[in-house]
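Forgive a beginner's question, but would it be possible to get any protein sequence you like and the C-alpha cells describing how it folds?
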Amino acid sequence: MNKKQVIFSIIILVLIIDQALKIYVKTHIPYGDGFNILGLNWARIHFIENEGMAFGLSYGGVAGKYLLSIFRIFMVSGLLYVLYKLYKADESLGFIASFSLIIAGAIGNIIDSAFYGLIFSESKFHGDIATMFPPEGGYAPFLQGKVVDMFYFPMVQSTWPDWMPVVGGEDFLFFRPVFNVADSAITVGVVLILIFYRRFFKSPSKKTDPTMTTETAEN
C-alpha cells in the first residue's frame, strides 16, 4: 500500500472498530455494568460515559462541554492539515501511520460528543439499556453527547502504606482509568512517535557524488 492508502486504512479501521464497540456496549450493557474479558478479573468491559476527555476525564458544565468539543474539532482540523503536509513532504511511513492513529482516535471521540446525544436515549446507572433512535429523541443536543468508555484493567489492587504522606492507608488501584479504542489509538500513536522519534526523523545518508570522487582522485 502507498502512504495515502495507509492513512485512509488506519483512520477508517480505527473508526469502524471504535464506533462498532461503543454502539454495542451502549445498546447491550446497562450503565455501570460489564463482564470479565476471557474470565480474567483484572480485564473487564465496564460501561461508563464521560464528558469527552480521554480516560474518563471531564470538563465541567454545558459551556465547558461546548468549548471542549469546539476545541477538539479545531484541533483535529489542524492535525489533518499537518498530516497533509507530512504526506506531501514524503515523511516516513511510520511517522505518518502514528500520526494517523492520533487523528483517528480524536475523530472517534468527537463523533460521540457530536452525535450520541442526538441518536441515543440516556443510559442510567444500573437502569434500562439505552436505545438507538428513540421515539422521544436523544438525551442531549448537538455537541453535548457523552463519550462511551469500556476498557477497564484493575490489575493491581492494594493499600498505600500508613507511613506515606497524604495517601497513607487509602486504597491503591492500578490501572484505574476506563478508556475506549479511540483513546488507545491516540496513546499508541503518541508512544510510537516518542519511541521511534530518531528513526522517523533520521536524516538520509549522504550519497557520494561520482563526479566529485573523480575530481578528488585527479587532484
